[in-house]
Amino acid sequence: MPPNLKQTKEFEALGTKWWITVFDESSDKDLEGVFTELEAFANKFESDYSRFLPDSQISVLNQARSLVNPTASLVSLLTYGKQLYLRTNTHFNLLTGHILDARGYDADYSFTPNGPEALTAGNPVTDLSISDDMIEVAHGNVDIGGFGKGYLIDELAEILQSKYDFKYFLINGGGDLFATSDHDEPIEVYLEHPTKPRHAIHRTTLLSQGFAASSPFKRVWQSNDKTFTHIVTDKNVPRIASFIKSPTARDADAFATAALMINEDELAHLAKTESFTAARFSPATGKLWSMKDF
Fold first, then answer.
1. From residue 115, how far is each of 53, 97, 106, 112 by CA, in Å?
2. What does the alpha-carbon distance between residue 113 and residue 65 come to, in Å, rounded to a whole number?
3. Per-residue pLDDT for 179 more than 80?
4. Of 7, 121, 188, 194, which is the most exposed, with the fewest CB atoms less than 10 Å away?
């Protein structure tokens, strides 16, 4: 049987659909075991780190407020999340899980506010202590939703590259991406209109890059004449969509969220500092702002 030049695996994880496409020449039998391993890895990542699962390491930490002898993987994950607070000039904060729960973005997806409106986020610098021996949370609940998919995408990419020596692939986790190339040809992707599904507003290419988008339109709900979103900030969230290309999917994921909270000058400065490129789109005006190399 001749090798296939393109094969794709679909599965569900982290509340969304995933597609992994390998462009390397490989037989169905060879890829079957690889795809099985990747799906199992994604499922374990969810069971370990989802705040929606009561027995996950994140949920246990949030409930007990400390975790003795944490796994090295959890230490790395939360250290990365903590660093984002300063890397984004405090705009990205992983200690907001309790606020999301109170808004109704909880394990039951009730979308019914059930807590006080004046909850404050924790400060990752002072309220999250991480060492190889213990992790402690003084205020706030950990939520990795703002970078979890991107982090997992990078982990899956590492398996494909380091363990199996695949060079050409695309990983799509519910719209967050990492692409190497299709036999050294960049992979074209389209920016979707935030309020018009399947309507493209721009196109760009990825070449060994991560990609992510964020907007307050995708997860929004109303209760008692108030509108809530999954974006937690002390400012009004602008009605825009952000798009980020970065060397890693985890950075693209996190900076796409941060990009919603800052003006274009600050975004351009942050992009230069953190080596990513950005675009933003306003449905109200129909205008796309983008950096030259986006």
1. 20, 12, 11, 9
2. 23
3. yes
4. 188
User: What span, in angstroms and rounded, lies between the C-alpha atoms of 85 and 139?
Assistant: 15
**Strand, coil or helix: what is 193?**
coil
Cα-Cα-Cα-Cα dihedral sign, residues 90, 91, 97, 103? positive
In sequence order, the 6+-apart residues with CB closer than 8 A to the CB of 121 are: 93, 95, 96, 99, 140, 232
Secondary structure (DSSP) of 81-150: HHHHHHHTTT---S--HHHHHHHT-STT------S-TT-----HHHHEEE-SSEEEESSS----TTTHHH
DSSP 160: I
**Domains within the chain, CATH numbers bracketed:** 52-137 (1.10.3980), 186-290 (3.10.520.10)
Burial bucket for residue 54 (CB in 10 Å: 0-12, 13-18, 19+): exposed
Residue 270 amino acid letter: L
What tens digit of pLDDT does each residue of 214-249 get? Answer: 998 877 777 777 777 777 876 666 789 999 999 999
Secondary structure letter of residue 286 according to DSSP: T
CA angle at 233 for the pair 78 and 118, rounded to the nearest 5°: 100
Own/partner contacts of 283-287, CB < 8 Å, gap of 24 or more, are 283/193, 283/194, 283/195, 283/217, 283/239, 283/240, 283/241, 284/239
Residue 243 carries which side chain, given as an amino acid letter? F
- CA 244, CA 206: separation in Å to the nearest integer? 11
pTM over 0.85: yes
Q: How far is CA 254 from CA 31, 105, 132, 251, in A?
A: 31, 19, 24, 5
What is the percentage of the chain residues whose pLDDT exceeds 90?
80
